[in-house]
## 1
Amino acid sequence: MFPGQGSQYKGMGAELFERFPTELEMANELMKQDIKNICLEDPNGLLSETQYTQPCLYFVNCLHYLALKEDNNVRPNFLCGHSLGEYTALFAANVYDLYTGFKIVKKRGELMSSVKAGILMAILGDKIDQITNILNEEGITNIDVANYNTSEQLVIGGTEEDLKVANEILEKHGYRCVILNVSGAFHTRYMIPARAAFMKYLINFKFNSPNMPVVCSSTMEFFDPRYAIETLGYQITKSVNWVNTINKLRFLGVRNFQEVGPKEVLTRMTNKIL
């Protein structure tokens, strides 16, 4: 399991950059920035900006996987990732090489950061599946579910005005609401402009058949290179359903879930689901 945006922190990858100098040099050339400096020192606060967060986190996730592969000779039965993390899963499955994935993720981050409409809000509480019904009954229809993270947490996206109203309604029903520090309403209808531009960009790339099955967290289907442009493009505007992704893997017989990345965000969420 590879984590997505929100798992980054200043200091991530410290144990990896010296180990993979060639990969770091190539990624720096593509980024036109010192990735090691951004990740370890972050003097200009770039690590919290989506257009830098996404390629940096993708790269660190990939280095974690390369290290794990070298040290333990692992070969997973399945791969998956939460939103951005899916791109590392595709790298691990040889759908593209490290640097092709880096170019794609860099463009994704740039496009998603350029869309300023909307914000995200996490909702915590029991009976989380009732939230959309509650909002619809109150006439709030311009809000989308961005992430189904656990049975006790989901994330919704919409305009600041709509989320303020939703906050008041949901708190009256006993839910706790937390505005997230992100640049836009990712995985909602508000990302349609980014999706359209991203799909045009993806036409330039070739996607190999995965050598290990990758379960996509927005469709819960196995990645198929024939539909790569649609799968990756529409992922930007579709909900990330981590609950059903993990449940599908459990149905397929998976009993050991290992997170590969800088934190343990997915491990905690997955343990709650299990």
## 2
Amino acid sequence: MIPKEWLKKIRHVELRTVRLVEDLMAGQYHSVFKGRGMDFDEVREYQPGDEVRRIDWNVTARTGITHIKKYVEEREMTVMLLVDASASGTTGSVEQSKRELAAELAAVLAFSAIRNNDKVGALLFTDGAEKYLRPGKGRLHVLRLIRDVLMYQPAKQGTDLTTALHHVNKALPRRAVIFVISDFMDEDFERALKVTSQKHDVIAVRIVDGAERALPELGWVTFEDSETGEVVEFNTSDPKAREEFAAGAEARLLGLRRTFRKSGIDTIEAQTDHPYLKALLQFFARRYRRLHP
């Protein structure tokens, strides 16, 4: 039985994201994600200008008339959402945690997929692959996906992207679109990302909170790493300390961008303290320009 407050939250996410999909995202999604290839449709008689390599020699020999194979684009795809359920997802701004933002982004992408007649599934991961939702279609399927992202209580706290990527590679034998929704608080996952991107169309959706980029001036503050439990004290009133913190955050961001670029994957950067629509639209615009020069 789902508590009332969670039902209300799931319904709120649905209302916000369905309206966004209907107004803006459906056409954008369709224009930048292609199906898995070309499916055989039928044979027809050869016409001048047709490609010779498409001639169906068996039908031609049987009928005595030259026929060619006709193909149509196979539109249906599988979309897989790899959602980071580690302990760092509980942090966030006053209005929204990183886990809540991940749920909204997952909902937008999932509703866009089913509107396009694609299947959508999810893998919730920490430093293990914890909960797998098989690809499916329909509103109820997406609502279950949103519920799992919001309500699932993970068994572990850390982040292991390599394990998650290996798991989804085994689960999806055919090419799929994979959105990795995470704050990417992990290391040494570049090789796994490259391997996955060679098999699938991978998009990194990086979620970040404002407090991870710059510290407010609050005096001495005790920080606890939600994944490792490590505790440190920090004097946020010290300008030099704040500068070093901001410089470290910027260096980490540049390092992640470099990893994504070397892996040949697209990226979306979303912040808990800013509307995510602009980031989504920028991603679709970049991808459209590349696919339709």
## 3
Amino acid sequence: MKRRDFLKASMAGAAVLSMPKTMQAMPAPGDIPADKNSTIKPDAKEEPFHLGMAGFTFRHFDIDQTLDFMQKLNVHYLCIKDFHLPLDSNEEQIAAFKAKLAKANVIGYGVGPIYMKSEAEVDRAFAYAKRVGVNLLVGVPNYELLDYTEKVVKQYDIRLAIHLHGPDMPLYPDATDIWNNVKDRDPRMGMCLDIGHNLRYGSDSLRDLKKYHTRVFDMHMKDVTGNTKANHSVEVGRGVIDFAQYVRIMRKVKYTGSVSLEYEKDMKTPFNGIAESVGYFRGICAATR
């Protein structure tokens, strides 16, 4: 299956930047209508998963710019980063933020990643997730905090998806490390499988999705140039990850979470690369049905 064939299956290319912003009223999750004027097809309703965006992708842009671009791409799920909604936000600030998301037809499905180096930071992170009103916290608690974190997970009834960082950090380098640390803990403790960083650590991301899918609560989608620390992120479809197989595995294991693009190339001018990546992924989904 050639890359150009998948690109033909998608409308998300250069024309995406001129798409209208008018959207319909906010529906329930999983039943979001497309902009009637959009040329981009919405995610197929029969897919068990949904396409989203990792907030870190937009680290150089405010929430208004972020939501504007998501509207143009017809992407409706966002994992909220604290530079868009600070951890100390009060109820009024959170309400105003959520109103912006609703107006843009975007659902904030989770928060994070949030790093936790003390019990107080664990408490703060989960209290923040509760105030925001999400049931998924993408987080990175230090290893020695896992016992305490498990207690807080039970207290708040909020799922924790531990984010892996490949060879870039000593904490949770790959999916196997997270699995070994959560497999005997509360079932609400799992992972955010970053398929690019996992591969850069030398691990097989597609195998790990199949092997650990019961604890995969969230995924960061990216493509990379190879399986070593020296390799780097590229547009989805330009690297070494077999996305056709990736989509087939998600369907096979009935993954129902978000597949959130975390685009880390050209982060100050990411829009063309994001549009290409979204279009390629949608083309893969269409071509493998």
## 4
Amino acid sequence: MIGGATVQSLPPEMLARIRRLEIHARRLVANVFLGQYHSVFKGRGIEFSEVRQYEAGDDVRMIDWNVTARMGVPYVKQYIEERELTVLLAVDVSASSGFTSTAVSKRELAAEVAATLAFAAVSNNDRVGLLTFTDGVEQYVPPGKSRRHVLRMVRELLYHEPQSRGTDIGAALTYLARIAKRRAIIFLISDFFDTGWESALRAASLRHEVVALTLTDPREERLPSAGLIEMEDAETGARTLVDTSDAGVRATYARRAQAAAAQRRRTLAAIGVDEVALRTDRSYVEPLLRAFRARELRRR
């Protein structure tokens, strides 16, 4: 069953798309991300596993004296890392996420990245949940750890029809802060076409571990020389006629995009939130791996 519907009841094209994404994500997890995820995102501590007979070189502080007394020979306690974490995927599904000038929209890219992170989490016996948002909370799927649970989230990411067009990152983070009772890892996936989210992100990062995955389409950075075109804001519906044959217009557009991206990077860094910059015209695998490696090196 996926999201309340049995697999058999899903339209064939929907089922095929979900299966393709599952296969791709699970292959990446098995071949690329599994060890990296485990080493970067640590568990909450250690828990007792078992006792075994003492061996030369063992820490004498770990001797279990009760068992030693019963068995007549030294035994030591063994502990393992308590792995279970809570991972929350907060994914922007506002109207701008549907924009694309490439083969993949920002929303499709978000779904692929989220699916990979979700399968990495459940492969490590972690719980993963999903929050989709526009200028309000669209849907919340509480954390779980089964394959069926992840497939439900994939379906919602690909096929949920948002009720609104705008973006309110602050409202999404405030909602997560209210319902997430224990410390969690929050992957915030958005194009960040919003303002006023800084204080909510700062508050969330004090309690949780937050990673920002920022999504960009190349057309949002640079305009082609295509004459007069009418540009529409996907979220507000506002339209503007732009002469893209004018080199000055294209240069101004590019400068503004670069300035906005630089300001976002500075703000995230000041808050202490890592940014993983992803683009619809490039693979997300290497940027995500670089971010994981950098995070691991800092922790060491």
